[in-house]
Amino acid sequence: MSFEFSIKTFDELTSVDLYHILKARSQVFVVEQNCAYQDMDEVDFDCLHFIAHQNESLVGYCRIIPPEFNKMKSNLSVADSDNKSSANSSVPAIGRVLVLSEHRGNGLARQIMTQAIAYCHKKFGKKRPIIISAQTYLIRFYESLGFVPEGEFYLEDGIEHVKMVLFMVKKVKVKKQGSSTSNILSFLLLVLALLFIAGLVYLMV
Predict the structure, then answer these.
(1) pTM, rounded to two decimals
(2) How many whole angstroms separate alpha carbon 5 and alpha carbon 90?
(3) What is the model's pLDDT at position 85?
(4) Which residue of 11, 24, 66, 139 lies most exposed, with the fewest beta carbons within 10 A?
């Protein structure tokens, strides 16, 4: 199945966009999960809204909270020592990730998260971690995207969550093993070849 993706600031959303976003969020996070909570918050005004469409209908969604508006922090407890200097720096967050029930099971959630992560790296820098508040039953899904659990489980609106962080994976240069050994072997083979040729010339004289 093919999907179309768009990302908009709050001011760029049309009234129709906003209606379908809030309807989908209410359907998934309030009705399906039987959780009465205040979904609409002041954070929406500062978010980037990532929408997945199929035939012009909203089928999936998430919101990206820019670093300067994100209140969630990472203590970088699972990061390496090089990152600890940035422990107090702000990081972007991805939240309200959803796929409507009739469109689940075809990889759309992974596409949404992959593109949201790519956007965060492009917009806020590849070295900056990305943080999420994940429902615990989805830990394996987010781990498959590179997120790492950080801290203890906690209840948010009566549902068990855990903070998860995606760190930039460092590229490690692998030294070529045995390069000096191969050079020595090549030299010895050359010497043997020269000795062989010299022996043939001696026998022919």
Answers:
(1) 0.77
(2) 27
(3) 45
(4) 11
